[in-house]
Structure prediction request, 616 residues.
Amino acid sequence: MENKKFFSKGELIIIFTGLVLPLLFYFSPYAQGLLIFIMMWVVLGTSWNLLAGYTGQVSFGHAAYFGVGAYTAALPFLHYKISPWWGLIAGGIMAVVIGYLLGVVVFRLRGPYFALGTLASAEILRIAFGEEEWLTNGHNGILYITTWVTKIPYYYIIFAIAVASIVSVKLLMRRREGYYFLSIREDEDAAMALGINTKKYKNISMIVSSFWAGVAGAFYFIYMGFIDSETVFALHNISIITILVGIIGGVGTIWGPAVGAIIMVLLQELFRSAIFGLAPQWVSGMHAFVFGLLVIFVILYLPGGVVGDWELIKKKLHLKSNTEK
Amino acid sequence: MEMFLQSLISGLLVGGLYAIIGIGMTLIMGVLKIINLAHGQMLMVSMYIAWVAWYYLGIDPYLSVFITVPVVFYLAKYISKYLLNPLIEKDSILPENQVLMTVGIGIVLVEFMRFIFTSDYRSVQTSYTGQAWHIGGISIAIPLFWAFLFSIAATIFLFYLLMKTDLGRQIRATAQDRLAASLMGISAEKITIFTYALGSALIAAAGSFFLPIYYLYPDVGPEFTAKAFVITILGGLGSTVGAIAGGIVLGLAETLGATYIAAGYRDAFGLIIFLLVLVFLPGGLKSLTKV
Prediction:
């Protein structure tokens, strides 16, 4: 393991492509906006994947950490005019605190109960942040005039965060902790019987996972310049989509969430723009519908996701081209 | 005092409605061992069918039960046959594969309805919409009352089906031990499919009774799904009686909490109780009794 290089050649090419991609679309803020969203979902998906894909704790409430990160950036700005850029660090840390506290409750639960527990905790936060108007401005949300008009700097910031999150997961999975995570996913009781402090390692996984979700949330506020409780704590638009990004790309793979994020954002945008205006307008109403169909297809036929079942896909495609000959 | 009685009665009536959502869910959970996150979406589909029947054909929402139940029963049957059952044998990293599938199904159902009917709020206007009986200073909404009666009837029907019929015994056997049941000659696969369809049909019937009470829009589905799993966990998995108790506890907690603590937190009370029950009373209300 030690003499293996940290990044393979292919991975370096992917990262390099990520670096030059916005320059190719220098004159298209629209495309840059899409790239930024892809990177944001890479961070969220990677964060979820560490906790769910590698540690087996399927969280249905990642919006909790995302939202807490976003509000950590936004609240000091609202009350004391402190720059939300501090939130990129503070948001992550605050999300870790909340994640740890929620973990005290939800890590007592397993499997589907854990899923529902995380779902409920995110929903409670959503309602609370919407109701406490003295603190959060309630449903009117918090507005911030963004620092730059151009999107390129935002892209490089979120790109750096995305790469850092992937590197952190990769580092963790190469270490002893990574193997402990996998053992917890495969059989928690057996892991405990072998002397692994499962509670501790589930918490470590949660800390790293919630940190990146919190950072993504803070970035969302800095970039969008507006949040309210319904958008950042959204059950469907954040928590569920995060899961689906992981599922489509491949749970328990390093690059799965990245692939899932690209597919999710591009597919939705393809339909939202009615296939670049070529199709009739009603097609644009189908973006979420088509995404749902894709999810069903992937779970049925590619249970490992696009990255996890890549060999299977290659074989299928190969067979087809052979028979056609 | 009057306010307290009023919230108590509203809470009980709403709790009865919640119970009927919970019963279908608990049935599915007991046999399939999954959380059906598309449960509320079935209710939403049924409500749209009932709405179409009322809007275009002038059929009373209560009579539309005879349309919604068979339609949703077959819809759910095919969903469970072709989408959920094949996953049992599939190898995957996460055991929650079927749950995630119900999420996907839920999205497809919601988005399909949004595509056809848009996100507009819809409601039906009937002779009993907004009508209420006044007894002393307390008012009882008539549609709520009928829905409550229906949920009691449905519970009795289900109880009879599960306890007294052969089919019910097969369902209970499969819920207890799938392998042992199939060794006794029960087709576990068929029972699984039937149970999913039955649970969905129950909530489809509820949809017809909910239409005169609630506004209808595509996202109403996920809201009821959330309530359904709260009720199921509250009552204890796979327990019909527990689901009724759970539904009534949730209804009371929401109404009393909204009246006396903070109206905006109405939906949060249920979730907080849910987390408390999960942590401190993992078996749900069922574990308090021996039934």
User: Anything to note?
Assistant: The mean pLDDT of chain B is 86. DSSP finds eleven helices and two strands in chain B.
